[in-house]
Amino acid sequence: MGLHGVKAVFFDLDNTLIDTAAAGRRAIEEVISALQSKHRYGEGEARAVCDKVQAKLLRECHDPAKMCITDLRISHWEEAIQETIGGEANRDLAAECYYLWKTTRLQHLRLGEETRAMLTELRKGLRLLLLTNGERQTQREKIEACACQPYFDAIVVGGEQKEEKPAPSIFHYCCDLLGVQPAECVMVGDSLDTDIQGGLNAGLKATVWLNKAMTPPGDTSPVPHYIISSVLDLPAVLQKMEHSINAKLDTDHMASGDEAH
């Protein structure tokens, strides 16, 4: 698919190409089950521990210079257990919960067959880049788990760069990697705050918001150029872009023809 004006597409990873949220829910249920069957926790206690961990993950501030991500996340579980059950800290149980959660989540991260087919087809005419925010080790493990490397010309992890999305610098770095200009690139992702705002900040040709629930954006949210409910709808959006570009080229050509007379 050779598109006039579009040379590259940047894809977000989590909850765009892979369903990280669903994999995370499966992982949490696995930990709840283990706490109940193996450690005699009541269901309420087990769920309370997991709820606290999820809240800590959402608020997580990681400084790799001070602590590795593994130690930090084991500490989330350790604190959550102590806050729920009381008593002395239980680092061993915290580590067991963390590794069960992490392993289960990775096992359920899949790049769907239809998504793989779409990426293969798009790559025949476009350069594709994976652009994901997050801590280096965590994101690289996800990339390995879903085996998405062969579908991309380049992979950029925010945690390995000076700035993450929505900073323009990481988008411009991606453009330099592929040898393209921002005005030749499209960003696809599920986050208005990072993917869409970032694409707008960097001056990309277009932003495509993946809004699976089709919920209306807030009044102060950045406005994407296009909205899709499935990543599989992207080729149709790119076709629409090509048609509008061709129409503009025809109009410009006619205008210059009129001027010649």
TrEMBL record:
Key word Ribosomal protein present: no
Coiled-coil residue spans: none
InterPro entries, per database record: HAD-like_hydrolase (IPR051400), HAD-like_sf (IPR036412), HAD-SF_hydro_IA (IPR006439), HAD-SF_hydro_IA_CTE7 (IPR011950), HAD_sf (IPR023214)
Keywords, sorted A to Z: Hydrolase, Magnesium
Swiss-Prot/TrEMBL GO biological process terms: N-acetylneuraminate biosynthetic process
Cofactor(s) needed by this chain: Mg(2+)
The keyword Magnesium belongs to this UniProt entry's keyword annotation: yes
GO MF entries: N-acylneuraminate-9-phosphatase activity
Domain of life: Eukaryota
Protein name as catalogued: N-acetylneuraminic acid phosphatase
Species assigned in the record: Zosterops borbonicus
